[in-house]
Amino acid sequence: MSLLQMNNLSKTYDSKKILENLYFCVNQHDVVWLSAPSGTGKTTLLRIAGLLEKPDAGSVVIAGEQARTQKQADMIRARYIGMAFQNSTFIGHMSVRDNLEIACIRKDDVMIDELLVLFGLDGIKKSKVRDISGGEAQRLLLCRALVNRPSVLLIDEPTSALDDANARVVFAQLEKIQRVYGCAMVIASHDARLADIATRRVVLDNGVVEEK
Ligand SMILES: Nc1ncnc2c1ncn2[C@@H]1O[C@H](COP(=O)(O)OP(=O)(O)OP(=O)(O)O)[C@@H](O)[C@H]1O
Ligand SMILES: [Mg+2]
């Protein structure tokens, strides 16, 4: 069974077709690099996969489950999906660790502490988020996406705001996530260095996903 299945999906914004009869499938252990020019619909695809947005037509099936209501969508997302999107916010006056704790659906100190170490954030876990660097914030974003032990991680442009050194650190973390947790990942990015960790490369073209 696929972890994520998008069937015959269409999405139009202001009469502009973004996705059209799209099929996309993600299986366990896949690390999918999703690339395409700006404005083609990568973020739209990830938002629909994460059940944050509804398609105009077609279905999204996650671990065999399909949401019929908003409540079901919220439950499926909470159980299976982790999301690390650009422009996500933290609570600046709270500590790094507390920001992770409030993201936990069920209290999971073991996972939080493990992630803080894994992402090299253990030393700053008591720092207020407003005081941490951009690179640290990007790693915290990935950490937060993992606290509920998702089966699928959806990541939008993980390195676009980072310098070269920090981008390399993030790629190393992503590789580590894959190794330690085995969760599937879909990563929308222009960064060609993803070729080193991806197991599949897909391109969004004319509203559909093409395997490369
Ligand atoms: N809520 C919305 N309302 C209207 N148009 C939208 C909305 N969201 C996205 N769009 C449009 O849909 C198209 C696809 O947007 P999307 O953000 O998915 O592209 P992208 O591939 O992620 O681009 P980038 O690489 O720049 O992040 C764009 O033309 C965008 O302006
Ligand atoms: Mg985008």
Written account of the structure:
With 212 residues, the protein is of the alpha/beta class. The chain has a domain at 4-88 and 151-211: P-loop containing nucleotide triphosphate hydrolases (Rossmann fold, 3-Layer(aba) Sandwich), CATH 3.40.50. 32% of the residues lie in helices and 26% in strands. The chain contains six helices and nine strands. The strands form two sheets. The chain has a six-stranded mixed β-sheet. A three-stranded antiparallel β-sheet has the order 2-1-4, with helices on one face. A hairpin with a 2-residue loop joins strand 1 and strand 2. The chain binds adenosine-5'-triphosphate and magnesium ion (MG). Magnesium ion binds at residues 42-43, 156. Magnesium ion is lined by residues 42-43, 156.
Descriptive labels:
single chain; 212 residues; alpha/beta; Rossmann fold; six-stranded mixed β-sheet; three-stranded antiparallel β-sheet; 6 helices; 9 strands; binds adenosine-5'-triphosphate; binds magnesium ion
Summarize the structure.
This protein is α/β, with parallel strands linked by helices and 212 residues long. It contains 6 helices and 9 strands, in the order βββαβαβαααβαβββ.
Give the strand tally. Answer: 9
CATH fold node name of the domain at 4-88 and 151-211: Rossmann fold
Query: What is the helix fraction of residues, given as a range?
Result: 25-40%
- How far the N terminus sits from the C terminus, by CA atoms, comes to 22 Å
Number of helices: 6
Small molecules bound in the structure, each named once: adenosine-5'-triphosphate, magnesium ion
Q: What is the H/E string?
A: EEEHEHEHHHEHEEE
What is the CATH homologous superfamily assignment of the domain at 4-88 and 151-211?
P-loop containing nucleotide triphosphate hydrolases
